[in-house]
Amino acid sequence: MPNRTDKISLTGSISLGTGVMIGAGIFALVGQVAEFAGDFFPLAFLLGAIVAAISSYSYVRYSSVNPSSGGIAMLLKDAYGPGIAAGSFSLFMYVSMVVAESLLARTFGTYLLRPFGLQDSVILVPVLGVAAIVVAAIVNLIGNTLVERSAMITAVLKIMGIAVLAIAGLIGVAAVGDGFLAQSTGDPLDVVGLLAGTTLCVLAYKGFTTITNQGDDIRDPKRNIARSILISLAICTVLYLLITVAVSSSIGGQGAVDARNYALAQAAEPFFGAWGVGITVAIAVVATLSGLLASLYSVSRLYEMLQNMHQAPSLPQSVRHQPMIITAVLAILVTVFLDLSQIASMGVFLYLSMDMAVQWGVIRHLRSKIEARIWLPMLTIVLDLAILIPFTILKVQSDLFTVIVAAVVAAAIVIAQVVTVRTL
């Protein structure tokens, strides 16, 4: 545990939050979101920000009253008691965060291989992803201070890099392009597709929940956790809108779909050539590696809390740094066996299920304790269902395997919790 001189500052907390969010979410998901929302994919990212901001209210209120390194796990325990429900949904959150790490890892491999035309390699992409996870885990084991300092440096680099890239792209379109809407196919708005795309966009913002897991590690947590969440969301929203409008203006929705997992690099090529691709790749590599650093730190803290609550398995006591090791190994397994689309979809199913459980717990059990305005968590549940149902319908039609895998993982978590509770 960190001591009084090893606390994370507000700036460090914002860096960790944006470090998780500005990574795979924007670099890997643009093409996948465009596949659902078409030319309206920038609007999907804006709607995703709105959903995340409204959802964050419950987390902000609870963390302001009861800051803890367990974060969401403690919220669920307070809401449902130390039983099957709290344990299951806490593990939903944990697994969704592990899946997000795998998304970062595979995005790292995809962009690093883009200049060599090997971005679709079924071997090299996961190999590089595994290497990135291992390096991030080792850095985390060295200490919190190193993680915070690296997060602050890389957060500044990412924010500046993406902002410059987006603004340069918009200037390029205005100066030598055919106009901001010239690449549009002219297809009408598909509301179901837009809502489904918004579901994936939530993954680009869900990193704010990792801030709640910083708990006692952050200075003045009752004030700074809330401030960190709101500032991180605001920064990411502005950057995402800038970059998606630039991508839309450069290659359009269909171009983003064709490029799929490396749409940002593809969008940089028409105006900036190989230099643009190289700069985009460099930013993506920094973004994903730093995202892994921040995510592994936060997720391992959550797992440690779940172990203390007897809701997650442990290795023999002789094994040190168990939360970090277990988290890294699980992330490696997902990276090896699932592709980016499958990883993103499974993460969405688990995360939104957990989020609705959190909001319901606030409504039924915690609203007085944390002095919550009840209409905001109620609205969050409505919004979660409004985007998750269309997404599920479209995924069942196009990728039933991933839906089944997510259902099996969820069922396995619940069954494991039932067994655990009955044996205690």
Please tell me about this protein's structure:
By secondary structure, the chain is mainly alpha-helical. The chain contains 15 helices and no strands. Helix 3 crosses helix 14 (375-398). It has helices at 10-21, 24-37, 41-65, 72-80, 84-113, 124-142, 144-176, 191-205, 208-212, 221-259, 263-308, 322-337, 340-366, 375-398, 400-423.
Write the layout of secondary structure elements.
Elements: H1 10-21, H2 24-37, H3 41-65, H4 72-80, H5 84-113, H6 124-142, H7 144-176, H8 191-205, H9 208-212, H10 221-259, H11 263-308, H12 322-337, H13 340-366, H14 375-398, H15 400-423
Helix pairs in contact: 1-7, 1-10, 1-11, 2-5, 2-8, 2-10, 2-11, 3-8, 3-10, 3-13, 3-14, 4-5, 4-13, 5-6, 5-11, 5-12, 5-13, 5-15, 6-11, 6-12, 7-10, 7-11, 8-13, 8-14, 10-11, 11-12, 13-14, 13-15, 14-15
